[in-house]
């Protein structure tokens, strides 16, 4: 392809992100195609989870995914700007300070709340359609509770503690669910009786959640009633004033918190464009998801107006993702050639959460409720996040939803969320550090740095393998020493067996001679019977892998003989000593503790594969995992070092990498009177 093509995507919602990622994958190696995504924020917002931030179940970062994570390493260029107008004839998008040209344009500017022209709603209601909206609701509710506890007037206090949610669709019911859970937390904090708090859901339709089946709707209704949430159906709202919601039946609800979730329309930006409109400010598209009058202009997500089976596409996440798939396919077909694709929906179902512990879902024809429905929703979110930003973002999600939950508001309640204070780990950290330091110091005393006396680490390699730098004379001595050690090991084993037999015979003779009294004899007999009945089930002193077994042999011949043997023994032994001392000092000082603990875990794995690690030493791995949790920030230098590297924007990464490379080389001293050539008792 000779001509350069520029694809411009405006809007970083679900549709814009999906289109950008698919196009980036399609044209990954094509230097003639450039892709630019423009958004006014540096992050993608998980719109379906905004209610969790508004209800203070999770922190704000849980619903924001930075574009740096999403498009890191890809060819998508992200520009932070606000587009104000588009000239479709000149193929230009304009902001206040820049002009962006394009060959293909993707519009994904989303939607915004629709107030249906009802007087007073826009001025007096809180909306839930952006990250800023969610934070505003959260702060408002916190402030409302704080003010209400000091109010003695019963009528005013009741008004302050009345929360009205307009709309019983997905967003409204999920917001009500967060409120009823947060109610209990706030009441405990401010010593308010939950009976004083009133949560009201107002819906103009005869039923809640009209997109769900009747049996699932009934389950949600029963749950809300059980939690004392008032649900008013067939009750249209006709107006609102400050602190007052007006209903069609003539009644009113006095409230200090009025949240509007009754519907959305296309964004004002989309409505102002010179494109053919459908209803509610949404833009008409063809089955190929492009504008009828401009074939190179494509649309995705909530701003699309398209009738399928005489019904407009629902403004849900799956619509955004599936329209984006069609858009990416057809742009690729226009550039590379090929058949276009028409939109055909394939919805997998719907799910709604009512707080953190209850929900209903119908996904893939499988109806679930309660714990399993919420678990399904978490799995769907993880699947989406993995596709968007990888495993790191999934881990962030799990931390926000489960591990960092301090009020038990998850399906696991508080299980797994409790955190151990760093000062309790301090003694263990200091002890581990001391053991590492002494291990290195002991090696110095054994002559590991006295290179004139020859190699001290020869026993770490297979028989006949000579380390680099070893002289011919030393090689002869080394081979002889290996034979002597082997013979001594066998002799020691035989001697130990003979000694054991002699002790047994002596005990038997003493018993026959009557030198023990009756009580001692009875105790001995009881002990013998117990030993016969309860023998040693698991000998924890044995290595995990046999030193002469296939695993240890493979590891020794592959890593040690194949790689380490080519390193001059002087350098190898120096690295071992310095590494052990460095790990110890790092742990004792709480400096780069995470790296020291990671190196310890890696070394334990090396020892295990080498046949040098016994079952009763596996605890050290778990202790090292404990160190990974920021142990060095409590009474350690990491208290200042870690924040420094975070502020430096990652400039310390080369130092981290170099440290890891050095610390992953580990050795130990010989065990002269044991058949295992390395000493594993060093913790």
Care to count the β-strands? 28
Tell me what portion of residues adopts beta-strand conformation. 15-25%
Query: Any low-confidence stretches, pLDDT <50, length ≥5?
Result: 495-500, 506-517, 650-683
Largest sheet descriptor: 6 strands, mixed
Q: Give the class-level CATH name of the largest domain.
A: Alpha Beta
Number of helices: 21
Overall pLDDT metric: 86
- Tell me roughly what share of residues is in helical segments: 40-55%
Overall shape:
globular
CATH architecture heading of the largest domain = 3-Layer(bba) Sandwich
Number of domains: 3
* Multimer state: single chain
Looking across the biggest beta sheet, what order are the strands in? 5-2-1-9-22-21
Helix and strand content put the structural class at alpha/beta
Structure description:
The chain contains 21 helices and 28 strands. Helices cover 44% and strands 15% of the residues. β13 (198-202), α8 and β14 (229-232) form a beta-alpha-beta unit. The protein is of the alpha/beta class and 683 residues long. α17 (569-589) packs across α18 (593-610) and α18 (593-610) packs parallel to α21 (653-663). The strands form nine sheets. A six-stranded mixed β-sheet has the order 5-2-1-9-22-21, with helices on one face. The model is unreliable at 495-500, 506-517 and 650-683 (pLDDT under 50). The longest helix is centred in the last third of the chain and has 41 residues, at 472-512. The protein is globular, with a radius of gyration of 35 Å.
């Amino acid at each position: 392809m000779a001509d350069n093509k520029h694809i411009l995507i405006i809007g970083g919602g679900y549709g814009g992100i999906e289109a950008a990622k698919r196009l980036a994958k399609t044209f990954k190696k094509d230097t003639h195609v450039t892709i630019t995504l423009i958004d006014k924020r540096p992050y993608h917002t998980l719109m379906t989870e905004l209610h969790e931030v508004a209800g203070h179940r999770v922190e704000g970062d849980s619903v924001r995914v930075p574009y740096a994570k999403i498009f890191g390493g890809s060819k998508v260029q992200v520009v932070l700007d606000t587009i104000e107008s588009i000239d479709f004839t000149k193929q230009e998008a304009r902001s206040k300070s820049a002009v962006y040209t394009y060959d293909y344009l993707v519009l994904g500017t989303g939607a915004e709340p629709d107030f249906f022209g009802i007087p007073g709603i826009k001025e007096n209601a809180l909306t839930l359609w952006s990250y800023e909206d969610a934070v505003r609701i959260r702060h408002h509710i916190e402030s409302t509770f704080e003010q209400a506890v000091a109010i003695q007037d019963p009528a005013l206090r009741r008004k302050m503690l009345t929360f009205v949610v307009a709309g019983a669709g997905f967003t409204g019911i999920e917001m009500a669910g967060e409120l009823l859970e947060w109610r209990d937390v706030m009441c405990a904090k401010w010593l308010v009786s939950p009976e004083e708090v009133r949560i009201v859901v107002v819906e103009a339709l005869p039923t809640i959640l009209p997109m769900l089946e009747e049996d699932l709707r009934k389950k949600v209704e029963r749950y809300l009633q059980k939690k004392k949430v008032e649900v008013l159906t067939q009750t249209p709202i006709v107006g609102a004033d400050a602190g007052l919601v007006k209903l069609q039946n003539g009644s009113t609800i006095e409230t200090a918190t009025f949240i509007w979730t009754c519907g959305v329309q296309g964004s004002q930006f989309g409505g102002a464009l010179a494109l053919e409109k459908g209803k509610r400010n949404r833009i008409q598209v063809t089955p190929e998801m492009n504008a009828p009058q401009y074939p190179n202009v494509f649309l995705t997500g909530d701003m699309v107006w398209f009738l399928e089976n005489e019904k407009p596409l629902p403004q849900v996440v799956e619509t955004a993702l599936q329209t984006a798939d069609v858009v990416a396919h057809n742009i690729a077909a226009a550039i590379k050639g090929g058949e276009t694709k028409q939109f055909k929906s394939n919805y997998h179902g719907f799910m709604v959460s009512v707080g953190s512990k209850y929900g209903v879902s119908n996904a893939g024809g499988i109806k679930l409720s309660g714990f399993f429905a919420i678990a399904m929703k978490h799995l769907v979110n993880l699947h989406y996040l993995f596709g968007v930003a990888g495993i790191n973002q999934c881990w962030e999600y799990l931390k926000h939803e489960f591990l960092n939950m301090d009020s038990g508001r998850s399906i696991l309640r508080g299980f797994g969320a409790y955190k151990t204070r760093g000062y309790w780990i301090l003694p263990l950290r200091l002890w581990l550090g001391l053991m590492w330091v002494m291990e290195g110091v002991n090696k110095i005393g054994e002559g590991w740095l006295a290179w004139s006396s020859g190699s001290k680490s020869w026993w770490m390699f297979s028989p006949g393998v000579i380390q680099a730098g070893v002289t011919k004379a030393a090689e002869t001595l080394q081979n002889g020493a290996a034979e002597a050690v082997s013979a001594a090991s066998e002799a020691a084993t035989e001697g130990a067996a003979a000694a054991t037999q002699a002790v047994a015979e002596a005990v038997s003779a003493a018993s026959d001679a009557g030198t023990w009294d009756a009580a001692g004899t009875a105790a001995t007999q009881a002990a013998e019977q117990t030993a016969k009945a309860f023998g040693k089930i698991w000998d924890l002193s044995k290595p995990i892998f046999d030193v002469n077994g296939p695993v240890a042999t493979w590891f020794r011949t592959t890593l040690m003989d194949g790689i380490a043997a080519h390193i001059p023994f002087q350098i190898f032994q120096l690295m071992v000593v310095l590494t052990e001392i460095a790990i110890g000092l790092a742990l004792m000082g709480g400096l780069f503790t995470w790296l020291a603990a990671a190196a310890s875990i890696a070394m334990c794995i090396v020892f295990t594969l080498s046949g040098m690690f016994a079952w009763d030493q596996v605890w050290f791995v778990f202790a090292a995992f404990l160190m990974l949790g920021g142990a060095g920030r409590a009474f350690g230098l990491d208290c200042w070092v870690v924040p420094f590297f975070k502020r430096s924007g990652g400039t310390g990464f080369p130092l981290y990498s170099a440290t890891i490379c050095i610390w992953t080389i580990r050795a130990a001293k010989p065990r002269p009177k044991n058949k295992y050539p390395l000493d594993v008792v060093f913790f």
